[in-house]
Write a structure and sequence with these properties.
The structure is a single chain. The chain has 11 helices and 18 strands. By secondary structure, it is α/β, with parallel strands linked by helices. The protein has an 8-stranded mixed beta sheet, sandwiched between helices. It has a 6-stranded parallel beta sheet with strand order 15-14-13-16-17-18, with helices on both faces. The protein has a two-stranded antiparallel ribbon with strand order 1-2. The longest helix has 18 residues. It is globular, with a radius of gyration of 22 Å. The protein starts with a strand and ends in a 14-residue tail after the last helix. 45% of the residues are buried.
């Protein structure tokens, strides 16, 4: 039997379908687009959840506005204060009534002030609070009052994420993975020539695009689609690309990215733990969303054995998993996919089938709703200052 939830209308009865409020610190950038993987994840999860239970997405922006996306209501709260001046740590008091009206509050990013407010309200009300950490965040008061069990549930996008949080044995911590909208990302309607590799993502040193450029076999081109966020790295990539068939695309929209997925010989996500400048990233990829999108388009994929990506790619079945920073092995796998289009096509179809079975948003929503319903909790399990 499912959990009974207090009526969010204020009545004294109960209902079996919880009213869920998702909260993400930032949703839109200056251009009006959803700005990154965490923001897109929160939006897509909420959008698909709204088809099954009453759902609202709340975020912060420069101006207040309300939107609808199908069944999903979106509220952008304007005039937020940025805690410690951090652009990704906004808070405004108007978010508190949104939390109080909900049966379930699902925060996206753990180490931000608004998530800790949600967790604190959980103790004062019968609302339940969950969190999905996407590897970002900023200062919040948990640095002064550490607590290990603030939330009713920690919903991770990968086993790697759960291990990185030290929660592999925590019953509240569950893996819900990530999803793909198969109406948006699907195989091409007819076979197309595939001779160019593709990278999609932010251009930052830990993404390892320099390794990919160096690994290109003779005669294989590369399209690099993403926003350069590090000027030194952008300049170094352009220098590495001299004399090679490499094209940079900094302003592709979703439609163009989808077209590129469908026509690529392979999609490559070559992230590294240690970048070319000696910088280290313990959590470079929690999951690898672009791998899922490429696989949904029946494109074979190559990733490094980094973070949660090996949970997505079945080595030798849907693509290849290679050691991070290994130019020789990456070159060998790139050449293999271009040299044997039949094998590449089989891997692409296997990837599409894997996404359809494991990584659709409908499947992820199901896992999420089950976690809301089944996660253990007590009224006294959260103690400010707990360091256990």
């Amino acid at each position: 039997m499912g959990r009974e939830y207090p009526s969010h209308s204020g009545a004294t009865g109960t209902h079996a379908r919880p009213y869920v409020v998702h909260i993400v610190p930032v949703l839109y950038g200056p251009s009006g687009r959803i700005i990154g993987g965490a923001e897109r994840y929160a939006f897509e999860l909420a959008r698909h959840m709204a088809e099954r239970v009453p759902t609202r997405l709340v975020s912060f922006g420069t101006e207040a506005r309300d939107e609808r996306h199908g069944a999903l209501a979106v509220r952008i709260i304007g005039g937020a204060r940025h805690i410690n001046g951090h652009p990704y740590n906004p808070f405004a008091r108007q978010v508190v009534p949104e939390m109080v009206r909900a049966d379930i509050v699902h925060c996206h990013q753990q180490n931000v002030f608004v998530a800790r407010v949600a967790a604190t309200l959980r103790r004062a009300t019968r609302r339940r609070a969950f969190v999905t950490d996407h590897g970002g965040g900023a200062w919040d008061f948990s640095s002064r009052f550490p607590a290990t069990r603030w939330f009713d549930g920690y919903l991770h996008v990968s086993e790697f994420s759960r291990r990185s949080a030290g929660q592999e044995h925590e019953p509240r911590a569950q893996v819900i993975h990530g999803g793909v909208d198969l109406d948006l990302f699907s195989p091409p309607s007819a076979p197309t020539p595939r001779s160019r590799a593709l990278f999609v993502g932010r251009l930052l040193p830990h993404k390892g695009v320099d390794t990919l450029i160096e690994a290109l076999p003779p005669g294989v081109g590369l399209d690099v689609a993403g926003t350069p966020l590090d000027e030194r790295y952008r300049a170094d990539l352009e220098e590495l690309a001299r004399g090679r068939d490499v094209r940079f695309h900094h302003h592709w929209d979703d439609a163009k990215v989808r077209e590129a997925y469908r026509s690529a010989a392979c999609l490559v996500l070559p992230s590294v733990y240690r970048d070319r400048y000696g910088g280290k990233s313990a959590v470079p990829e929690l999951l690898g969303q672009t791998l899922l999108e490429g696989m949904a388009c029946a494109t074979p994929v190559i990733c490094t054995a980094v973070g949660g990506m090996p949970e997505v790619v079945e080595d030798g079945v849907t693509g290849f998993v290679v050691p991070p920073g290994d130019v020789a092995v990456l070159r060998e796998k790139l050449a293999a996919l271009v040299r044997d289009p039949d094998a590449a096509r089989s891997m692409g179809l296997a990837g599409h089938d894997r996404v359809r079975r494991v990584f659709t948003w409908d499947v992820v929503v199901g896992r999420c709703l089950q976690a809301y319903d089944a996660s253990p909790t007590t009224e006294t399990d959260v103690v400010i200052g707990d360091t256990a």
